[in-house]
Write a structure and sequence with these properties.
With about 260 residues, the chain is α/β, with parallel strands linked by helices. It is about 45% helix and about 15% strand. The protein has two domains: about 5-125 and about 195-260, Alpha/Beta hydrolase fold, catalytic domain (Rossmann fold, 3-Layer(aba) Sandwich); about 130-190, no CATH class. It has helices at about 35-45, 70-85, 95-110, 130-145, 150-165, 175-180, 180-190, 200, 215-230, 245, 250-260, and strands at about 5, 10-15, 20-25, 50-55, 90-95, 115-120, 205-210, 235. Helix 4 runs antiparallel to helix 5 (about 150-165) and helix 5 (about 150-165) crosses helix 7 (about 180-190).
């Protein structure tokens, strides 16, 4: 089943590749399912039935009751999608804010999840000063939108500056695809990342937290806290940058294979 699928009071645009155990790939902010096509194909080639989708409010999916309850709304959508596709329990690989959604799936729908792999989740909600951190990140973005209402592309460039740690211009060709998803990134992701977690929620199913060697400050602070809650040490992938899944699908494909073999 590809195309629009009715779930949880909205429609989600879905694509499937390959055959084998199900693997749900959850995109991050400024992304949609189509941007993960290379990563999905690489995983499918190793023997997975890979499911990608546009999160509610993003890309070709519907916007009913959106934005809603942040990571929990998206976790409920994803679990409902897996049930509709007869694909539960699935390995869930979430990248960036999609990693927070994947962890929320483990918390709310452990029956739908075989294992979670969260790649560089910016989970500010597990930090003691979460509200302060979020306010500091969003202050220049909110100021920009007050001065330039609905200029989500300009606001997105400011947010990328923080997330990636490098200047991003509104006409940077490397971010052309992301600009189509500027509005959902700005309106939805700041709530998604604030989702708090408890140890009970992150020990119901096997969880892997993985980061590159130089994660941004927020990811770097959240990863050990998430690892402690889940009872695991974060996996460090040497040389991998935050958006490695867009540039070198082999990296997270190898990580997924390693986790499958060792339970890392």
């Amino acid at each position: 089943m590809n195309g629009l699928v009715a779930v949880a009071g909205t429609t989600l645009h879905v694509e499937q590749r390959g055959e084998g155990p199900p693997l749900l790939l959850v995109h991050g902010g400024g992304e949609d399912g189509s941007m993960l096509a290379g990563q999905a194909a690489a995983l499918a080639a190793t023997g997975y039935r890979v499911i990608t989708y546009d999160r509610r409010g993003t890309g070709r999916s519907g916007r009913a009751n959106w934005p809603g309850e942040g990571a929990d709304q998206h976790a409920d959508d994803a679990a409902a999608l897996l049930a509709t596709l007869d694909a539960a329990p699935a390995t869930v690989l979430g990248v960036s804010s999609g990693g927070v959604v994947a962890l929320a799936m483990a918390a709310r729908h452990p029956e739908a999840v075989a294992r979670v792999i969260a790649w560089e989740p910016p989970a500010s909600g597990v930090l003691p000063d979460a509200a302060t951190i979020n306010a500091a990140i969003m202050a220049p973005i909110e100021a920009h939108l007050r001065e330039h209402p609905r200029d989500y592309v300009g606001a997105q460039a400011l947010l990328f500056n923080v997330v990636l740690g490098v200047p991003v211009s509104t006409d940077d060709p490397g971010f052309a695809a992301a600009r189509a998803n500027a509005e959902p990134m700005i309106r939805d992701d700041p709530t998604i990342v604030l989702r708090p977690f408890t140890a009970a929620e992150l020990t119901a199913v096997p969880v892997t937290i993985a980061v590159g060697t130089e994660p941004n400050e927020l990811v770097g602070a959240a990863a050990p806290v998430l690892g402690k809650l889940a009872g695991v040490e974060p996996v460090i992938v040497e040389g991998a940058r935050h958006e490695v899944y867009l540039t070198d699908p082999a990296v997270l494909t190898a990580l997924t294979a390693l986790v499958g073999r060792t339970g890392a």
